[in-house]
# Entry
Amino acid sequence: MNGENIMRALTDIDDRLVAEAADEDHIRNFFRNIADEKTENHSDKKKNVKKRFKKILLAAIISILIIAIGVTVSGYIFNFDFEHEVYELFNDHIKLNLDEIDNTADSFSIQSSDLANELANNGISPVMLPAALLTDEWEIEKIDYQFENVFTAAGIYFRNGDIILGLNIVQYTEKCYMSGGDIHQPQEGTQLQINGIDVFVFDLLREPYAKYFIGTTSYSISTNCDYETLIEIAKTIQ
Amino acid sequence: MLEDSKIIDLFFRRSEKAIAALAEKYEKLCMKVAFGILNNLEDSEECVNDAYMGAWDTIPPKEPNPLKAYILKLTRNQALNRYDYNSAKKRNSTCTQCIDELYSVSSDGITPEMSAELREITECIDEYLQTMDEANRLIFLRRYWFTDTYEELSELTGIKVSTLKVKTMRMRDGLKEFLQKKGVAV
# Structure
């Protein structure tokens, strides 16, 4: 069996399918309708986000009031070395404030790597990656992609012996779709300035976690290594 | 442009206007299909004309509905035959001679064994296409039946080229798995 045989076998498929696919006007309308529906759904989601924002705001006010009256409501230790304006503190999580975060890279010096090329071939470009992960010590086990109308995402799974590390990259079509995200149960946090961007490394209750943003692309790293090791990895972002 | 049923009437009355009416209505589409496979204007025109003659020879007794699919299939078969012939000519080896000999086994270059195998694959592909949602099915057919380039497909659907490439790759993988499950060697 070869490609030519498949091409030949395709010729005799159901007449109705051929006629349908031959109708370019039908196809244009069909995909336009899908796009319109997605836009409408997105508008609805934005409305929901606004509603959620009001709830979060209310929760924040309540949290501040509780802290103000000196009642301890959380067992988590918040020890952040962050600039004050880049985050909002909640009861058991913090939220990064995208408007205050440096997300304009000075340079993208790692574009010639195989991984950067692979990502570029799938529509994610340019990228800033931790150079430490591109050494022989680390092996890429797999890459998963997700393609949606408003974003393209890649999940890259690295391994270095017993250490596993997941780098999740989401490239949005517009900034309005982005969010700083909620970081739950943080024990400690460090803000790094690397090549013009802010990189946030957290020690969560169970594992360290890092997050950074470049333009309309968000990066997050989860791993089972220790917090200090992740900081060292994050310092190699370029 | 005449309705399909009126064009079929002309064929049944053996009026030569039938081919002119067929060409007026479907030549652009037929040329697109042939050129997508052959990438050569002269060869494509010949294939389309051969397809018209194929329609002339087979209607009647056939009364195809939809006529559009019928003439497109005739064109595609002609173009694939020409493609094989052109490729074989270029190879110019003992293998080429064998292929030429096999082509002479039946009028369209396909042996009965190959024909049965192709029918089986066609049935599987038909079944696989029924499992797809309409969007993916249209993308698959435009790419592999009408041989649209990714850029043409992107213009038609409004989907990014990179997304289309990944979608079609997944569909190919899906088809391969489907054929394997059905016991068709791939």
The helical segments of chain A are 3-11, 15-22, 24-68, 114-121, 227-234. Chain A is about 35% helix and 30% strand. Chain A touches chain B at residues 1, 4-22, 24, 27-28, 30-32, 34-35, 121-123, 145, 147, 152 (CB under 8 Å).
